[in-house]
Amino acid sequence: MKRSQINKALKELETMCAAHGRKLPPFCHFTPAQWQEKGHEYDEVRECMLGWDITDYGMGNFDQIGFSLITLRNGSRKFPDKYPKVYAEKLLYLKEGQYSPNHFHWYKTEDIINCGGGNVLIQVYNSLPDESIDYESDVTIHTDGCARTVPAGSVIRLTPGESIYVPQYLYHDFRVEPGTGNVLLAEVSQCNDDNTDNRFCPPVGRFPAIEEDEPPYRLLCNEYPPAKE
Fold this sequence. Notes:
EC number: 5.3.1.15
Mean pLDDT: 96
Structural class: mainly beta
Shape: globular
Low-confidence stretches: none
InterPro entries: D-lyxose_isomer, EcSI_cupin, RmlC-like_jellyroll, RmlC_Cupin_sf
Cofactor: Mn(2+)
Strand order of the largest sheet: 1-2-3-13-5-11
Catalytic activity: D-lyxose = D-xylulose
Keywords: Carbohydrate metabolism, Isomerase, Manganese, Metal-binding
Helix content: 10-25%
């Protein structure tokens, strides 16, 4: 993925957050040069991978398969004594025409909330004991306190203000309902580890390889330099 694409996506996500009144924490505004000067006081940002996250899932086609995210708060399963938060919060931005591939999580459960813009469509499947997709069994879903059972592969439509609970091992994907506009989502979950807790089906990458065609506007959450001593 080109750095210019990442920079453009970051600015679009910033604009969407501002349009919906979501103020971002100070670390989201640090420039790459400022990160070079930050010491161990920001280890939580580095080690819990807070901040910006743009991915094309290694597919090289961000406008069709991609997602823009910000992790605002997070704990750590790797360092639970140092970072004991058991929860995480993200903002996610999905444009019309983009798709976030089918996956489940072994560890975390999450609520996905439509914070504004268009409508998001989420297709759901159970998983089988071998972790493949169960194309047959009905799925029990929970949307804003309402439990109901739907056929495998059902598409759940969330309008602004609506949410869905996603338990462990539930396959789900994301796309925007055509004609409704770009969507800002929130994710509230158990602490998040994107290096170890995503099972994509079929397999895809998670963090992009970057072609440096211009200087970075912001650093991504997996790009922070070591703390200045």
